[in-house]
Amino acid sequence: MIKAIFTAKALRRRAVRSSALSLLIFLSSLCLCVSAIQISAQEQPPAPGPPRPVKIPQVVEKKLPNGLTVVVIERKGSPLIATRLMVGIGASAESLKNAGLANMTADLLTKGTKTRDATKIAEDLEFLGADLGTSVGFDTTSVSMSVTSDKIAPAMAVMSDVILHPTFPQNELDLLKSQKLDELTANLSTPGFLTSYVASVYSYGASPASGTPASLQGMTRQDVSDFYNGYFSPNRATLFFVGDITPAAAYQIAEQNFGAWKAQASALPMAVGEGSPIETKSIVNRILVIDLPKSGQASVSFARQLRSVGHIAAGDAGAPHIGPDYFPGVLTNSVLGGGYSSRLNLEIRIKRGLSYGAGSSISWRPMSSRFATRVQTKNESAAEVAELTVEQLRSMAQENAAPSELAARRAALIGDFDLHLETDAELIDVISDLYANHLGTSELNQYERNVSSVDLAAMKQFAAKNFISGDLIIAGDYSVFKDDLKKRFPNMPITAIEADKLDLTKPSLQK
Prior knowledge:
Helices cover about 45% and strands about 15% of the residues. By secondary structure, it is of the alpha+beta class. The chain has a 6-stranded mixed β-sheet, sandwiched between helices. α12 packs across α16.
């Protein structure tokens, strides 16, 4: 009897829950229907709101007697101080013979000094709660550190020791060479890496910053020491402080730690110049395939070296400044491949599902910038993706973008710019980029105005000038897409090279 009563109650509870669930489902369906009606009634997405005012920080600069430039941005209340010592030399100083030397030199800075070995450096930084790392760009080598404001003095002592007194221990060099060779060997079987690796020589007339198997194997301690002694000098360096520190305190710390650093004349040439861009009227100038049999996917890239569009060329009258092509280039690239709603991603991913993402980028430099698109896809769709990429490049060069595209990208760029000024680490990136390109910090105040002043005609003109005469580079299993590629590009000669026989010194891979 008791069991029957509990069973009956359980059934009633189940019935109540079932009724409640049915009602909930009905109400949810009703809400979805109402939402669907509202969405369908809204023909256009809401227009972007007005950009928020951007607060430009004050930048204070002073030179030490030895020529070191010290730049300070005081941000009271910031818990951390971001610092960076940037030397005006990078991978552009390399040739194919010593490719990877700038990266090797930077990495070895933290592996031993006259008074600290690698372990001691790591322990001292960990005790202070400081993060220290190195990085290399086309034209700069940087040592960056982040630490709390109360630890800046002892942390800077470690940072300066790393920069001024490296010993480049042979055992650390041997270990790094082995690690970099292993990493490069693994990357050379990756389609996405291969396209950019080859483009550095084939399209840009330079050398890969990661090095080549031959250059890494042949690198000696003397090579590293010569590179350091030839280029690291205070009159070619800038020391940045961003955070809760006054200019007076920053200058005192800089003088204490870097005042004895002696300036020297360069013993080595400043840079290896890149060749001039090839000029033709067609979108694609050459097609190169890196054959990677049985690769899981293919990488498709369009690469082209651009003329100097960052600022006026060296030697022109007047102070360096951002030239007329820069902001049209920023917006044009953003419409083409700068976000999820960009044209490349829309056509390749959203409409056709051929990739997880498609985009483009411009690596801006004072004298010679680089443009590239990038898509990873199935081998079966590699040729189709290549054709879609070329179609979008042609469209950008021959037709005006839609006003709605321009408005959306303007809003996104201005919003991103504001975000990049919020944290110390991001702000130091923005400021150091200006100094790397020999540009004044006053450019920060003009960013929003310059972005807003670009019109559709300027974007079309930029694309017509720069999105042509490029190289189509595809890395993947050529046997899968060979016939389709020839069908889609019937009048274009195709050069195919086996990945395991890749040699960047061969004339067929030279620009």
